[in-house]
Amino acid sequence: MPPKNTRAARPAFRCAECGHEVAKWVGRCPKCHEWNTMDEAAPAKPALAKMAPATPSTSARPIGEVDLDSARAVPTGIAELDRVLGGGIVPGAVMLLAGEPGVGKSTLLLEVAHRWASARTGGPSLYITGEESAGQVRLRAERTDSLDPELFLGSENDLSAVLGHVEQIKPGLLIVDSVQTVQSPDVDGTPGGVTQVRAVTSGLVALAKERGLPVVLVGHVTKDGAVAGPRALEHLVDVVLNFEGDRHSSLRMLRGIKNRFGPADEVGCFEQRDDGIAEVTDPSGLFLNRQEAAVPGTAVTVMVEGKRPLLAEVQALVAPTQMQIPRRAVSGLDSARVSMTLAVLDKRGRIRTGEKEVFAATVGGMKVTEPAADLAVALAIASSSLDVPLPPNMVVIGEVGLAGEIRRVSAVGRRLAEAARLGFDRALVPPDSGRLPPGIKATVVPDLQTALKSLRSR
């Protein structure tokens, strides 16, 4: 009698970051090289060589005959959230909202559940909390004035119990806070592990598609700011949103990372208050520090987040030091691009900062990673080094190349129109910027040396 094949029964180990599987546990993933991400997973079942055909659940139709009414977005009543989602929540869509602890994810979703319930059009909303008790969520709802008889609240950690609530209440919107705290009784593994998170998410996705029920999942993030759990979690859902914010600032940014039903690069602005989350429809003024007198070391640029132009102020401080190795500190900017800008300033602009300390930051806690802010960073550093301020009514737009050239960026006309609306009447722009709006005088700067003349001539 041949020996039994026991190799298939051995457990496998799957990386929580990239999903790579190995037969034995290792401390570092061989594929993505992350440490301590290998978790035990159930062994994969062997694939069948041939599968028998089954009866389709629905008949295939020509694409032009497919009904669109069941897939139209339903507005949530929160304009900034609808902007990011592309008009609202699509029935049957599964959304994943990630963010750091304390940023306001639960408060935002409680407001979404309240708005949905009070609309009386899409059915009641069901809020499942796995991290807090029902009484704690009730206290938050009273503080933020989010009580409504059509808003149902349940405290569950079992997936089968969550499905039972859905069967009993038949909600029009389901919110699960959070997916890492819910476990499936049919799957082995600890709550929050790779196997459990994948099984719970797959079960909720199947529920959403079967009933046409929109589901919102709250996800934790790692210390690097990425969504915790297996990378396949982001592929299972339809929409991935990231809720960002500095704990020392009241401003919150809702950024779309993935969206199968709308734009994936939009951003919504909110403000964290004592009575809840409030929308910020015109956030440009939050990132500016307008002063009557011009101050050296400041430059204003215009970013584009999705389709929304936002004015941002870049501040720099260049100071002498007695230390052998001068310090370089960056906040809200890409440190690699700031280092590159310093090298270009030294080589092409003859602004020497090698023996001085350089500090660069943005105002209001805004994170600026777009290359269009390169020229503003360069002029802010040069302004502080020369102790000569830029004109207070000027905006600076352009990407700086290693040869010192100023490269073209997108949507210059839309950026300048927003700057003119806020009272700016002068601008430095790269060549080939297209048609510019009236009300603002734009000066084309082909290279960094030309841009620095606006400082040295003052």
From TrEMBL:
CDD domains attached here? RadA_SMS_N
Keywords of the record, alphabetical order, are:
ATP-binding, DNA damage, DNA repair, DNA-binding, Hydrolase, Metal-binding, Nucleotide-binding, Stress response, Zinc, Zinc-finger
Q: Which InterPro entries match?
A: AAA+_ATPase, DNA_repair_RadA, P-loop_NTPase, RecA_ATP-bd, Ribosomal_Su5_D2-typ_SF, Ribsml_uS5_D2-typ_fold_subgr, Rubredoxin_2
Could you cite one Gene Ontology molecular function of this protein? damaged DNA binding
User: Residues of the signal sequence?
Assistant: none
Q: Where is this region: Lon-protease-like?
A: 357-458
> What GO cellular component is one of the record's annotations?
cytosol
Any one Gene Ontology BP term: recombinational repair
Tell me which residues bind ATP.
Answer: G99, E100, P101, G102, V103, G104, K105, S106
Which SUPFAM superfamilies does the entry link to? P-loop containing nucleoside triphosphate hydrolases (SSF52540), Ribosomal protein S5 domain 2-like (SSF54211)
Every copy of the RecA family profile domain together lies at 70-221
* PROSITE patterns xrefs: RECA_2
- Please name the SMART domains in this protein's record: AAA
Motif RadA KNRFG motif: chain residues? 258-262
Membrane-crossing residue ranges in chain numbering: none
**A Pfam family reported for this protein in Swiss-Prot or TrEMBL:** Zn_ribbon_LapB
**Description of its domains:** The middle region has homology to RecA with ATPase motifs including the RadA KNRFG motif, while the C-terminus is homologous to Lon protease.
What family does the Swiss-Prot or TrEMBL record give for this protein?
A: Belongs to the RecA family. RadA subfamily.
Q: What does this protein do?
A: DNA-dependent ATPase involved in processing of recombination intermediates, plays a role in repairing DNA breaks. Stimulates the branch migration of RecA-mediated strand transfer reactions, allowing the 3' invading strand to extend heteroduplex DNA faster. Binds ssDNA in the presence of ADP but not other nucleotides, has ATPase activity that is stimulated by ssDNA and various branched DNA structures, but inhibited by SSB. Does not have RecA's homology-searching function. Plays a role in repairing double-strand DNA breaks, probably involving stabilizing or processing branched DNA or blocked replication forks.
Q: Any idea what this protein is called?
A: DNA repair protein RadA
Provide the species name.
Saccharopolyspora gloriosae
